[in-house]
Amino acid sequence: MIGKLTGILDYRGEDHVLIDVRGVGYIVYCSDRTLASLPRNGEPVSLYTDMLVREDLMQLFGFPTLLEKEWHRLLMGVQGIGAKASLAILGTLGAEGVSRAITLGDIAAIKAAKGIGPKTAQRVVIELKDKAPAVMALGGTLAQAAGAVAAQPDDAVLDDGPAPKSKPKPVQAAPNNSAAAQSDALSALSNLGYSPSEAASAVAQSAQDDPQADTAALIRAALKLLAPKG
Fold it and tell me: Which top-rank group of organisms is this from (predicted)?
């Protein structure tokens, strides 16, 4: 299984690019949003990949972050959503937009993607709504992992040399379930681009309104508080 490619962007088509990795060219299909974010031809590029294997087909799909790749895998698990539909949704909303739409049950946002009808959009929200908070909470860890990988040389994964001087500190367990839920909710909202003050205020209000709320409930409630009014 090919999980990541780092090489030189050889050329780009309407829905794919060719990445030259030490003389071997890999065709990687991407969303419109990802294609627009890539460097110019001839420049270094790195994408996380997911491989689709069938009896008569083998394709690679590329994503700029591990979070977006995780959403692609979840979307592909929904009945009626194939690779093309998944890339259409991610291309329209981005990983953060998908997180918001599914968490808030925003069927209209999912339906805005090309080729996605109302019934399919509804199915996406229903089947993935309970999974969204967990993916969002993982976003910080995935983003940090992506940064760590990008900072290493190409062969770092195979290098048995000394470990780097500084290592990320393990996350400490929160003193109680409520604190842990609030911490996870804060992390998820930060990954969606909200400022620390906005996120903290919304989570605190949500926790006050429902002291027994778990992470998923806190995220949903906080997003509703942060949603534009009017």
Answer: Bacteria
Structural domain of 226:
175-230
Token pair recorded at residue 114: 């090309």
Written as one letter, the residue type at 16 is H
Using one digit for the tens of pLDDT, what is the confidence trace for 178-220?
Answer: 677 877 888 888 777 787 777 777 887 888 888 888 888 888 8
pLDDT of residue 24: 94
Pair 86, 54 in one domain? no
Question: Could you read off the pLDDT of 77-115 as tens digits, one per residue?
Answer: 999 999 999 999 999 999 888 988 888 888 999 999 999
Neighbours of 217 (CB within 10 A): 17
Instruction: Using the structure block, give the residue that is written with the tokens 């093309």.
Output: 84
Residue 200, domain CATH? 1.10.8
Query: What are the tens digits of pLDDT across the range 107-152?
Result: 999 999 999 999 999 999 999 988 877 777 655 444 444 444 344 4
Domain with 86 in it: what CATH number? 1.10.150.20
How is residue 158 annotated by DSSP? G
The verdict on 41 and 73 lying in the same domain is no
Domain assignment of residue 115, yes or no: yes
Number of domains in the chain: 3
Determine contact, residues 111/118, Cβ cutoff 8 Å. yes
CA distance 114 to 109: 11
User: Does residue 159 lie within any of the structural domains?
Assistant: no
